[in-house]
Amino acid sequence: MTPGEDYEIIYSGKHDNSILGVANGDYDAAPVADSVLIRMTDRGLVDGDALRVVYESKPFPRTGYGYVYNLKPELAEQIVAAFLDFDFMNSSLFEEFKDTKGFTRVDYKEDWMNVVAIQHETGATYDESGLSTLKAE
Fold first, then answer.
1. Which residue stretches of 1-137 are H helix?
2. Mind spelling out the 3-state secondary structure of 34-71?
3. Known Pfam families for this protein (predicted)?
4. pLDDT (tens digit, 9 = 90+) per residue, 88-118?
5. Who contacts 124 (Cβ-Cβ below 8 Å, separation ≥6)?
6. Residue 70: how many CA atoms within 13 Å on its side-chain side?
7. Cβ 28 vs Cβ 7: under 8 Å
8. Range(s) of the domain holding residue 8
9. In the chain, how many domains are there?
10. Position 30 in a domain
């Protein structure tokens, strides 16, 4: 299948919009995070049985936090400790992300391997120029 020929590419702006677009028949398909779909189904916003998963990648982190490479090592260690020691299970974050028990270390090359592969395959760039193109569409 060729994008732009066999199907139209539309950017909804976020996973929730894409899921609602498929559920309402505005889009034929959409790539979304399964965790977002699960939360929307649990809240009764969409009927999970009315949607079909056609491909599922290996899991990868929802998001990442980092620090600048030349930060003083002591401060960098304190930042990491603040995340790893955070009482996630007794926070409002746990109410939203019940399938997560806390923050964890992430290895860029290992944990985002699938995302990087998609980037290379599609030719997407995540610099100012590439992101401004997405906004224009």
1. 15-23, 34-42, 73-84, 92-96, 108-111, 113-122, 128-136
2. HHHHHHHHHCCCCCHHHCCCCCCCCCCCCCCCCCCCCC
3. Phosphonate-bd (PF12974)
4. 999 998 887 877 889 988 888 888 888 888 8
5. 118, 130
6. 0
7. yes
8. 1-56
9. 1
10. yes
pLDDT at 9: 80
| Cβ–Cβ under 8 Å, residues 19 and 27 | no
State the residue for tokens 């985002």.
112
CB atoms within 10 A of CB 113: 14
Which residues are CB-neighbours of 108 under 8 A, at least 6 positions away? 64
Confirm if 19 and 30 have CB atoms less than 8 A apart: yes
In a domain, 132, yes or no: no
Is 128 among the domain residues? no
11 within domain boundaries: yes
